[in-house]
User: Fold DUF4190 domain-containing protein from Terrimesophilobacter mesophilus.
Amino acid sequence: MTDPTVPDQTPVPPTPPAAPYNAGPAKPSTILSLLSMIGGIVGLVLSCCFGAGFLFAVAGIVLGHIGKKKENAKGMATTGMITGYIGAALAILMWILLLAAPAMLSFLPWTSYTSSLTYP
Assistant:
């Protein structure tokens, strides 16, 4: 007979190993849309500096169109395209103004181009 004051010493069976963790399908990447948005915003900001943001704006436009077709982050891609188009237009406008500025300033009476003219 066993002593009633001593608990039962039967071994406990080991617990089975846990099921492996299934991470599930990977989320689609939104890198093209993110780069489009960054390129568009940088192009918009730098286009006011002598049209230097034109290349960034074009990159934002191209990456935005590609990202809109391939990714789910359509908001970032659209933002990149809109800011890219505005930045490219501002850069072209700045180039036109910079090329036309000397010609426009030559007709002012206080510039050196017209100082030899006499007015009646």
About this structure: Residues 47 and 53 are 4 Å apart (CA to CA). Helices lie at 31-46, 54-70, 74-105. Residues 74-105 form the longest helix (32 residues).
